[in-house]
Every structure is written in structure tokens, then in C-alpha cells.
Fold this sequence. Notes:
The complex is a heterodimer of chains A (902) and B (109).
Chain A: H1 3-18, H2 20-44, H3 49-60, H4 63-72, H5 77-95, H6 97-130, E1 139-144, H7 156-165, E2 169-183, E3 192-199, H8 203-207, E4 213-214, H9 223-226, E5 229-232, H10 234-241, E6 251-254, E7 257-264, E8 276-279, E9 298-303, H11 309-326, E10 337-340, H12 342-348, H13 351-383, H14 385-393, H15 398-435, H16 451-477, H17 481-486, H18 488-493, H19 498-532, E11 542-546, H20 560-575, E12 580-586, E13 595-601, E14 608-616, E15 630-631, E16 645-649, H21 650-656, E17 666-670, E18 684-691, E19 698-699, E20 702-703, E21 706-711, E22 721-726, H22 732-745, E23 754-756, H23 757-764, H24 766-799, H25 802-810, H26 815-848, H27 855-858, H28 864-892, H29 895-901
Parallel strand pairs in A: 3-8, 5-7, 14-21, 16-18
Antiparallel strand pairs in A: 1-9, 1-10, 2-3, 2-6, 2-9, 4-7, 5-8, 6-7, 11-22, 11-23, 12-22, 13-14, 13-17, 15-18, 16-21, 17-18, 19-20
Helix pairs in contact in A: 1-2, 2-3, 5-6, 5-15, 6-13, 6-15, 6-16, 6-24, 13-15, 13-16, 13-19, 13-24, 15-16, 19-24, 19-26, 19-28, 20-22, 24-28, 25-28, 25-29, 26-28
Chain B: H1 10-19, E1 24-25, H2 26-36, H3 45-58, E2 61-67, E3 73-79, H4 81-106
Antiparallel strand pairs in B: 1-3, 2-3
Amino acid sequence: MSLLETFYRVRNWLISLFRVGAREKEMTVEMENHLQLEQERNIRGGMSEDEARKASLRQFGHLDGLKEEYRDSWKIGVARNWIRNLKFSLRLSTRYMSSSILASIALGLGIGISIVIYTVSSRVVSIVVSGGLDLSERHVVLEWETGKDEAEPLSNQDLKIIQEEIESLREVMAIQRTKALLYPPGQNDSGKYYKGALVTSNMFEVLNVKPRLGRAFSNSDTYADRISEIVISAWLWSELFSLSEEAVGSTLMVDNQELMIVGIMPEDFIYRDSAFWMATDWREFDGVQPVRAPKLDKVIGLLQEGISVQQARSELDVIAANLVVDTPLVNEMRDRFRVSTYWSIFTGQAGILIFSTAMGICWLTLIIACSNTFNVIITRTAARSHELAVRSSLGAKRRHLIFQVIFDGLVLAVGGTLLGLFLTIYGLKIFNEFFAPQLAMRGTQLFKLEPSVMIYIAGAAIFSGIAASFIPAWRASKIDAFAVLKDDSKSSSSVYIGWLSKIVVISQVAFSAVMIFVGLVLLIQVDRWKKTLELPYNTDSILMAGVNLLRDEQFKDKQPQDLINFYGNIKRRLEGVPGVGSVAITSVMNPLVGSPLTIELGAREGDRTKVRLSKVSPNYLDVFDTQPLQGRMLSEVDTLETTPVCVVDKLFIEYYCREADPIGMRIKMSSEKPRDSKKHHRQWYEIVGVVPNLYPKKIGSLQQRANVFVSYAQLPVWSPKIMLKADDAGAPRFRQAMRQAINDLVPASKSGGSQTLEEQVSNGYREIEFGFKVGLVIAGALLTISFISLYSIIKFTTSLRRKEFGIRMAIGSNDIGIVKTIIGPWLITVGSGLLLGYLCLLGFLSIAFNGQSIPALVGLSQSIGGIYLGAVALIGICALISIGIPVWSATRVHPMEAIRAE
Amino acid sequence: MTKHVFPQGALEMLILKVLSNGKEHGWGIAQKIHLLSSEALKIEEGSLYPTLSRMQQRGWIKGKLGVSENNRQAKFYTLSALGKMKLKKEREQWESMVDAIAQVLGSEG
């Protein structure tokens, strides 16, 4: 059959299908014309008009049969039946409007939530595992094996040797995270610090990604050419160039160096929160001591065709062995490389727990939504028993009845699926607009809808809609018309749901209870977590900036006096700026993270515990507007020449000195590293004061460590963080003053920009906060879907008993009697569901947390029962509302009206 | 008169041939085939109209309501471009088959 003929066939088939009236008319005209002409011929042959007509009809044969044969040639019988069924299903949906809408919303929400959960969790896991890079099974991540969970990063020198010697890898690329001041040429003042990455020039080739505009790094043999290029992210392009295409080819100042923008990456390409990528091979570090060589954030190899991961691992083992022999001091604790694929990292990390929990929620949500559709269909079909019986007795075939019920399910499933896809698209849009900036990725298509996922879940939902209708359809087709019609009052006034439906409702209640429990936990945890993060002072009034003194020649001898001088100078400079209250130094950029250290308490020698250590300047408390609670604060007189002293916070007292006076107690710092022989780790520090708690005691449910503060003069800090106290510390003038002072005093330091404490805290916890916010949205959606599902099924089945209530009222029943008849069966069903839900929940928790104590992560040890009771109460309220509304409306209607309306 | 059973596709070919001379309604097509075959072929209404409808669905012919010579409404068929190609192809196949059959029948074996 030619293409042209196929086209005509399809076109004419569609015309016949949608203009069937015109086709019928043509057929009738044609046959009538034939009969008339034949009749005229017969008359001409001598017959009377009546005889001629009869003869022509006789000759024509069975007219209706011929017409059927004629219609058959249009081949639209099946399609017309489908359309008829579809119209009927649409009419049915309109008839049971509220149940249709609620079922579609439940299914739509189920699909929407499932796809959003899948997309977000897989992306988050990808960020955790590979920083967001899309790695295939041919990519391997290379690190130093440590024998522990954490591996150690490779240095540029390791990379160089691997690149030179490896044969099983086609290419090896590396990434080192960095931070740089970016601004257009000549606009130094408008510069802003951005996180970015130094990468090997083959990075995009290895990852098989292409810029959306421009090109990747050139393959120029000249190193100077390659390092004069920069590739920027889509969100930086949007921020700096307002999406102008002229950005490609223009220049950008990066830490006072002029680079040409050669490419702009697609919106969905991310590597952590990098705004830009610059090519390098770290050759400026070629001569440095191995310990000072830069550590690479990621080294990724691309396997040669036909080479397995195991083969590459064997070759890398040999290279590692040589490296250990060549540089024994550097590689003392190492003996081999860790070679991992994306999947092996994924399964080896917490990612698998996050992902499988997310998938569990995803499938439970879909099951609830689909079982709701199932129940709606089964109860609708039960409610139509009378009508189906009449049709059956009038000769409707079994397949017609089955198809009609299936179409009902299909209409609901398609409606729900379309709504679900709509919700997914907008849901992901909202996630991108509101949550991507949380991860410092403004304007990024962080969460992108995968068509395959969409098709898979939509297909599953439609299939489940059809499958869910098949059982009620089959039951409807086997209907005993005689029995149903005879027993009319029973079939029309009370709905027989059947054991199957009851099991589904019980499962639905059980899953809803689990979902509501999960939702409640998330809600409670978000609130609890946020409360614990509140700090007892104004975090907007402290501005902080880091400075690496060792990059500057003047500090290369590490003389403590140089550090003291630096502090004096910068303090003098910054305190001269109008509005600045005080200036201090600390070793810790993010006070909520700190530097954990093991200490030994003098009072209990040998008893080790972990604290957070901060090396601070004497006026540290001034920036927090607070005073010591006991004893004294560190002072200028505490130097290397005097007795080592420290102050501790109130939390330290709570943990270790509840009854003893802490002043005068001694602590010794000891490292977990066996090789550590630093002097300060061997000496005792005397506690001279107690300061208030400056940081939270708990973050979420995690107990925080106590804090110990020592003087920067006794324990020098060569990467100090400058703290500036001012009412509006985030104002540009303070940031500018901070940058200027650091640049003037330590020109080679490459200060990483300044941030207020508020920014520090929110940056440090933005991933966690992001997780909780996502959890909050999902919890809300889960609560909604559970409510809608339960409400729709209970309301629908109860409202179908309107006539029965009317009769009961007519024969003397009162409101309480009616309520009892409805609540009784539902109490048993809902109660069984809740019990099953509790068992499922215990099973889920024990599987998810591997039988260990659940609490450390979610803080639930004492409250599982309580929260579950909350879920039960919510379901109870939902059930009461669902039953109460139709009962209330039934008791308002006059019995005669209810019976007449039926 | 001998009643002929049409070989597969022959009726379609005859209809296409009749319509290649201009538009015609169903009755007219049957009459023309009857006359052109020297009254040897008579098309049954029971097979004519479903065939016409099938050919129209396939796009070989076009059907349109019009007014006949005796001022009555009728459905007239015309040949489409696809139908012309089909007729040419069918005719060639038919002739080649007839030749082949004739050769077999005319052989001495």
C-alpha cells in the first residue's frame, strides 16, 4: 500500500467516523436513486408502478443487510463503540461529579508527587554522589583508599602520573573547587565572589556535554591559550549578562586576570554550586612539596572501549604501588587507589537510604491514588447494578458491559494522569524557582522532567486505572439481572461493596496512616529543627571574612608575633570605619560546624571526649555583646610565654563539670591521628573562665559538642577569620572596607569574600534546610492526597445511601439511628486499616533503620506512638467529616423527597 | 445468460474503467458495465455498493451528491488521481495475466 493510499484511507476513515451522518445520507440517497431508476425501467418494461417498485426491491435484495455491509466498509464500528462508551463514561463522570473530581485529584496528586519525589531525590542523590555530574557506567571516580568510609583526594601530582601512565583509561579529568572575584573589565567595584572550579581542559569531552552557547575549552597546544578561557554556568550568564548572547567572546575579570568567555553551559549542567569553569593543569604547583600540592575535588576517568572496571583497577594498583615507593612520606598510609563507579558510590552511601525511602513513598503514594480509583469504580459499578441488570436483560453482551465499566476507569485514569502531568510540570517549576536558589543555583534547571519517567508513571497510572476497572467490570458482566431486578430496593438503596473493596479500603487507610505519619514527622521535624537553629544574638550584625596568611611572604616563618601584629593592624583599620563596634579573630568560619577535637579532661585523666575548638582573639565576646559568666575571658597577656589557658562554654559545664568548679581544671588536646605530634596537642590548658553558650545545644535532634576557646596567641591560626561587629554588618560599605583592609595588609591572601553570620549559618545548612523544605512540601501533599482519597470513598458510598436514609426516616428512625448504621461498618474497616498501618509502619521503620535505634536521625524514639496517634486522630477526623456531611444532608431531606428523587 | 463470478479485483478494475470516461452514479456504472460487456456481465447491487464504498474509502474514487439528468438527487463518483494510477497498474497486471493464461491454454502440450 502506497503512502498516498494510506493517507486517503486514514483521511476517509476519519471523515466516516466524524461525519457519519453525511455518509448515511449519501448511502440512502444512492440506494433510493438506484431503486427509482430500476423502478422506472420496470415501468418502461410494462409493469404497474406498484409492481415495478416491488420488483426493484426484490432485485435489490435485503436492503437493511446491504446497508450494514455498506457501513462495514467504513470500518468504524469498533471506533464508534469506543466513542459511545467514552461519551457514556463522560456522562457518568458528570453524574457523579464530586467523586470524579476527587478521584482525579487524588490520582493527579499521586502521579505528581511520585514524579516530583523521584526527580528531586534522584537529582539530590546525584549531587551527593557526583556533585551533580551525569556519570555513566564507563566513568570511574579515582581516590586514595584509606580503609575507612571516607577516601582521600588525589593531588595534582598523582593526577599527572596517572595521566602519563594509564592505558586502560581513555581520558582522565580533574576538578578542583575554587572561589574567585568576578567582574567585567574596568568595574572592579562591582566585583562579587563566586564559587567555581579549576578543571582539566578535557572535562566536557570526558563528560560528553556540550555548551549551550559557544564552545568548550580549545585543544590548543599552548597552555597560555587554554588558561585564558573560561566557561560559565547558565545562571551566572543570567546574572552577569542578562542572557545576552554577546557574552560569548567577551572578557571577564577573574581575580584581576582577564579571561575570555568561550562557552555557556546548559541550564541542567551543574557541578555542585560552581558558577564557572577554568582550564588548568596545575603546572605552577609542579615543583612544590607533595604535602603542599593542591588536593583535587574529583578525578574521573573514562574507560577505554572493551576495558572493564576491574582491569582499570589492576593497572591503577600498579601505579599506586610505584607512587608509594617514590613518595613514601606522603603516601605513608596509602597503598592503592579506590576506583568507583557512580552506582558503587551510590549504593555505598546514605544516598541509597534516601533514594529507597523516597521510592517507597513514591510507590505508596501511587498505590493509594490507584486504589482510590479502584474503589471509586467498584462502588460506582455497584451503584449501577440496577442499570446494568436492565441492559443485560435487554440483550447487552458481556463484552459491552465490561468495556463500558473499563472506559469509566479509563476516563478517571486519563483525567488524573493529565492533572498529574500538569502538577508535575508546575511542581518542578516551583522547585526550580524556589528551591534551586537555596542550593545557590539561581536560574538553574536543577530538576528536569525526564520524559521516560513521565511516560512510565503515566503509563502505570493508566494501566492501573484499566486494571482496577477490570474486576468490577467482570463482576458487572456476570450480574444476575433477575435477582437484581427482583431485589430492587436492596440494590438501589444500599451499596454492596464486597470483600475485595473492603480489603482495598483497609489497605488505603493503612497506607494513608503511614503517609500521614511520615508527613507529621516531617512537619514536626522542620519546626523542631528550625527552632534549635535560633541563635541568642543578632546574626546580621556580624560580618566575617577568611584570609590565608601563609600565601603571603611576610608570614612564611609562622612567627606568632606576626599574627599578633596583623590582628592589631586590621583591628585598627576596621575599627576606624564609622559604625564598626569591634573586630575579633577566630579560627572557625562557620561557628555551627567548628573544628572538632578530642580532649582529655584533667580531672579524669585518660578520659577522652570530643569538643569543638576555636582559636580566638581576646575580644571575641565583644562581637557577640556578651560577657564571661564566671572567671575571666582570654586576654592580651595570654601568650606563648605564659601558662596555656582556655575558656569553655556553659554547655561544657553541663556535660563535664556539673558539680565541680571548672575554673582551674585542665584539659589536654589529643588527636585521633597516631602520627600527630604537634606540640600543642601535648600540653595542658587551664580553664580560666566560662562563657555563655554562643551556639545551639542541639541542631535538630543532634546534640552539639561543647566549645573550648583558646587564645590565637597561644595557638596560632594562619587562616584566621576576621569578625566585624556593626548594626548593619551586611552593608556594602563594610564588605568593601573588609576586602580593602585584607588586600592592603595581605596582598597575596586571595580573601574569599565576606559573609554575615546569618549568611554563614544559612549557607552551612542550606542543603539540610532544602531537604526539610522539600519534606514539608511532600508532607503537605501526602496529607492532602490521603485526606482526599479517604474523603472521596467514604463520602461517595455514604451519599449513595440517601434513599435508604429516607426510608429509615420515614419508618421512624431518628438521626442517631442513621448515624449508627453508617458508622458501624466504617469503624471496623477504618480500625482494621489503622491497625494494619501501624504494623506496616513498624515494619518500614525497622527495615529503613536496619533494626537500630531510629531516633538519632529523626529523633522519634519516644514519640512514634504519639505521632501515630496524631495520624489516627487525623484519619478519624477525616472519616467523621466524610461520613458526617452526607449523613447530615440526608437527615435534612424529607423522606418522601429522598424516595421520589431516586 | 451465463452468470459470471468476478475474479478478485476485477470488479474494481471495471468500475475504474467506467469512471475513467467521466462521472457516474452507482446504477449508471452497473448499466454501463452491462452494456459494454454486451450484456454478458451483470453486477449485483449487493456487491456493487459495498465495493464502491470500499474504493472510496481507499481513495481510488471520489463520491459527491449531485442532481441527476431526471432532476433527482444522486451520488456521483469520479476517478481520483490515485484511482487513475490504480487502473493503469491493474490493467497491466490483468493483461499480463490474461496473456499468460492464453499462452498456457494455446500451447499444444
